[in-house]
Specification:
Blueprint: E1 2-4, E2 34-36, E3 39-41, E4 46-49, H1 50-58, E5 82-86, E6 111-115, E7 125-129, E8 132-138, E9 144-148, E10 162-163, E11 169-170, E12 177-178, E13 184-186, H2 194-200, E14 210-211, E15 213-216, E16 219-222, H3 229-234, E17 250-255, H4 258-265, H5 271-274, E18 294-297, E19 303-307, E20 318-324, E21 328-334, E22 340-351, E23 354-364, H6 409-414, H7 417-431, H8 434-455, E24 463-465, E25 469-473, H9 483-493, H10 515-520, H11 524-557, H12 561-587
Helix pairs in contact: 7-11, 11-12
């Protein structure tokens, strides 16, 4: 029985690495194939006896893509029959002996940028994507346009420009004006100069690169490739089918790179450890070792996986995860009684060391006929009942109406800014959650030391997982809970290393607790709420409290001692309210306590 073995037959092998035979196998002659610089050199014929020898000669990494696994088929009747591995004929020097890697263009993908509910003006709205400065605005037809955010004249930021009444984008520096397709429509200082106008108006040298946009389920997507409009039209953004037409999206810019944020989203086992005290039943002593994942490689369409519980409180739960390139994670937790929690995350690679999180969640209650004893007892279902706190999810249900919500409709009509203030206060609740700060604290450190540590070899050298194979990594991925991270890293490495390439991950991360940079600077709702809180605190401090103290003093001077107690209490209440309002306003700027408090956050107490 003979078999011709070629590297192409084993897609699980990485960079030409072949299994090595061990001395315990019965091998005649020089038999082990060696790999060097992705070139396969066969030293001699191989004779391996029996089943153990056959597996040792061509064994693959245990977990290669589910649909692409190469499984040795051998009969127990082989007995002592010899299996010979025959060396292929050497190729000529001109032949390419390396297998081509899958082509994946990270520019030719749909990336979500903003929920349309946040784009309440015609623009310009600045943002970063793949390290580029871009800008959004509405043209004369009410369609969102996207183009480079730098004026070709003197490199001024178009984000500080304005949109003309007919929907053109005007640079604030010298008034150059651009159409929706990026072409230059007007140069004020060239008026009357026919030669200058002919060189600039409608010319390629003055044209902004423009990019396709699309709105799906309340999200505005951008295709950051200016010369593939047809391809963009044929491809749809990845959006989970379970979502309704107008989900309640939340948006935060977070430190750490696109890669580590997605890796974290494929690693549920971190929750009871990293997120202790953030949610009920999250504690290290309640963690349970995970069973192996069931992972399927979907090629350029990403990965899908399913797994069981990872804590005592969710044993019996079944989770289904889907990676939708370039940056989406759609996850459903299905409990034995039928209730479902769904999470949808986008980790948009804005620049190296920073992502934009666009997230939402939903909850499907158990069927009404579900019995009390459905496999999870006592408080084991609490995770699916609580209002999850943190920036990664929205509220499942409103527990109580806020003060702003209870105001009459007549006041709202007179003061339409109240709607923005209400939404901004809801975002404040999300920012104050522990989950996001706990994630940021660990992931920003992990991202800053990971690749440099192994590249410079001051920590240790990169290594390939013995259990899952794949490319060399700075991680030690050997438990069942690590499988999806290992498979995701292999998927990304096979496609150039991600949006910024293999060497685009090293950068200085922004502040972990910087709320202004993370959310408030681009959220008009948060800015409205911040202005409301600050204004109310200023009013109490400068007007209400002094007035109450003045009345109390006059009452004391007139001998009305008992009556003076009322304005005194009002002044004390005003001071207390002012302090609380200042604290809430501080939450829109930083996650650290305001002075004179210590700049310290206790995330695990």
């Amino acid at each position: 029985m003979s078999s011709l073995v070629k590297p192409a037959a084993f897609p699980g092998l990485w960079h030409g690495q072949l299994p090595r035979c061990t001395a315990s196998h019965r091998i005649s002659g020089v038999v082990c194939p060696l790999s060097l610089q992705k070139e396969i050199h066969w030293i001699g014929p191989t004779r391996l006896h029996g089943w153990v020898g056959a597996v040792a000669a061509v064994v693959l990494p245990r977990h290669t893509p589910t649909r692409q696994r190469c499984r040795l088929q051998a009969s127990a009747a082989l007995g002592e029959k010899e299996i010979q591995v025959v060396a292929p004929k050497p190729s000529s020097p001109t032949e390419d002996r390396t297998e081509p890697k899958p082509h994946f263009d990270w520019d030719k993908q749909w990336y979500p940028i903003f929920p349309t509910s946040m784009l309440k003006t015609s623009g310009p709205e600045p943002f970063k994507l793949l390290g580029r400065d871009l800008v959004l605005w509405k043209d004369g037809d009410g369609e969102w346009r996207c183009a480079d955010g730098i004026c070709p004249h003197r490199l001024a930021p178009l984000a500080h420009g304005r949109v003309t009444p007919d929907g053109q984008l005007m640079c604030r520096y010298h008034g150059w004006t651009f159409n929706g397709d990026g072409s230059c429509a007007k140069v004020p200082m060239a008026a009357g100069d026919a030669r200058a106008e002919s060189k600039l108006i409608g010319a390629s040298c003055s044209k902004l690169k423009s990019y396709p946009t699309k709105v799906v389920k309340g999200l505005l997507f951008v295709w950051p490739h200016s010369e593939s409009d047809d391809e963009a039209g044929r491809k749809n953004p990845f959006v989970a089918e379970e979502l309704d037409d107008s989900p309640n999206w939340s948006v935060f810019d977070a430190p750490a790179s696109w890669r580590v944020w997605l890796e974290q989203s494929w690693d549920p086992s971190h929750a009871p450890f990293l997120h202790q005290y953030a949610l009920p039943n999250f504690a290290p002593e309640l963690a349970v070792a995970m069973e192996p994942f069931d992972v399927e490689d979907l090629g350029d369409d990403g990965l899908s996986a399913s797994h069981g519980g990872y804590m005592q409180s969710n044993q019996g739960m079944k989770a289904f995860r889907r990676f939708g390139p370039p940056c989406a994670n759609s996850t459903n937790y299905v409990y034995p009684d039928g209730r479902t929690i769904g999470f949808n995350f986008y980790f948009v690679p804005t620049e190296p060391g920073k992502v934009r999180q666009i997230t939402t969640s939903y909850f499907v209650p158990a069927p009404t006929d579900a019995g009390e004893d459905s496999g999870l007892q006592g408080n084991m279902m609490q995770m699916s009942k609580v209002v999850l706190r943190g920036r990664t999810v929205g509220n499942i249900e409103e527990k109580r109406e806020g003060i702003v919500t209870r105001m009459s409709k007549s006041i709202r009509r007179r003061w339409p800014q109240l709607d923005r203030i209400e939404q901004g206060l809801k975002s404040w609740k999300l920012m104050q959650g522990l989950i996001g700060d706990q994630d940021n604290t660990v992931l920003s450190f992990q991202d800053s030391v990971g690749l440099p540590a192994v590249r410079n070899k001051y920590f240790r050298e990169a290594r390939t997982s013995e259990k899952f194979g794949g490319p060399p990594s700075e991680y030690l991925l050997e438990t069942s809970a690590d499988e999806l991270v290992a498979r995701f890293d292999a998927w990304v490495a096979a496609r150039g290393g991600g949006p910024f390439g293999e060497h685009g991950l090293e950068s200085h991360s922004p502040g972990v607790f910087d709320r202004w940079e993370a959310h408030t600077r681009f959220s008009k709702d948060a800015q409205a709420a911040l202005a409301f809180l600050s204004g109310a605190a200023d009013c109490l401090e400068s007007r209400v409290v002094p007035a109450c103290l003045l009345v109390a003093g006059l009452c004391m001077a007139c001998g009305l001692t008992r009556i003076s107690g009322l304005p005194t209490l009002a002044a004390a209440a005003g001071i207390f309210a002012k302090t609380r309002l200042r604290k809430h306003a501080q939450g829109f700027l930083s996650g650290l306590p305001a002075a004179p408090g210590l700049p310290l956050r206790k995330l695990w107490e």
